[in-house]
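User: Hey, my collaborator sent me this sequence without any context and asked if I could get a structure. I don't really work with proteins. Can you help?
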Amino acid sequence: MHIHILGICGTFMGSLAQLAVAEGHKVTGSDANVYPPMSTQLEQAGIHLTEGYDPAQLEPAPDLVIIGNALSRGNPAVEAVLDRGLPYTSGAQWLCDHFLGGRWVLAVSGTHGKTTTASMLAWVLEHAGMKPGFLIGGVPRNFDVSARLGESSFFVVEADEYDTAFFDKRSKFVHYRPRTLVINNLEFDHADIFDDLAAIQRQFHHLVRTVPGNGLIVSAPDEAVEQVLERGCWTEVQRFTCEGEDGVRLGDWSAVDVAADGTSFAVQFRGAGVARVEWPYTGLHNVRNGLAAMAAARHVGVDPAVAAEALQKFEGVKRRMECIGRVAEVNVYDDFAHHPSAIETTLNGLRAKVGSDKIIALIEPRSNTMRMGIHQGRLAKACAGADLVLWYEPEGMDWSLGNVVHHSPVPAKIFDNIEAGVESAVNLAEPGSHIVIMSNGGFGGIHQRLLAALEHKHGDAGPASS
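Assistant: No problem. I've predicted the 3D structure and written it out in structure-token form, which is a compact way to encode the shape of the chain:
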């Protein structure tokens, strides 16, 4: 079958394309911007890419067009598909119809931690010899690919609440029909498509309704999640918690004896000790991610002790606090921060690890919700774990970061071009500093430009460290 994918360079659609090729389909695709690293992965998979949405790309007519959720009515290629009566579907629907049917789906959902938890879970199953398939919105370093078919009935999928397509406004995850569902947390996000938290909760309730009675829901004791479950739940729920969290009783799965920086913890299941984890990852958010992965893995038969062994060999996810270089004892990290809560937990986790070392945060508020200014009242406080914050405010941004800087609990300044941000970070850094670049996009290539500037000032880069 010849499949043409409109919007192919997104993480989800690009991963889906690679699954389709692995299944033997001919795949072509297009996007508004065709650029690495996804374009390189796709070309290496033998997928022909077209930049832009000229209807000519639909000649000769493909057998099926998969339309990404970034495209809408008025797009020339979309209009051509409709006018010519070409068969079309969404990526989430096609994933369900062609890869998930008849498999044991383990879905990982929530506002934060989906990519990391799904990566941990896939690796735990791999370590246990289960050879799962997966589709994840990032690249787990244990696999170095974001998707694969697998060799068993188990399939791990990152379950995103973003809408499916212009013709299907349900969340993508409603299509996945998981037997094991993780709900990490739930906050307001994606203000471009959701009016409020209640609208997101409605979609999560649709998801809960698809989990069978003999399945399992693994959940954080999150108030917004509990409100979803109170609407109706027909499946066993196991909750996971960390000892000492304010106002939270220990759950079915509990992390106890947690190191201050999160690099070690003991695991209890319903009060009995079952494992201990010692790893290089920091912050309670990663402890929770690990607990969720262990709980979901146990549902498919993985002993917690085996899961703990796997977590200790987990190599992380690209762009999730990934140390991309070290120059003159200055560590540079890349982190996919998209929400104040993610910024806060990441910086606090690093602070717990490095103590009084200087932390410099370079932040691009790039997500649709951040660019709309929805979370601007929370951004200043979210950065309290840093020593200095450099905010990127490009021309044409919908609101000004001036108020965030004014209320910042730590020194902060705004830069309006990448060169200025790089110069400031290099001048402020000193031996032993940690520079964290936080953005859910390419950030104008600031990562390599910063490393190059540090090298120019101090000499050659040393090996990356974590």
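In plain terms: Residues 461-466 have pLDDT under 50 and may be disordered. You can pass these tokens on to your collaborator as they are.
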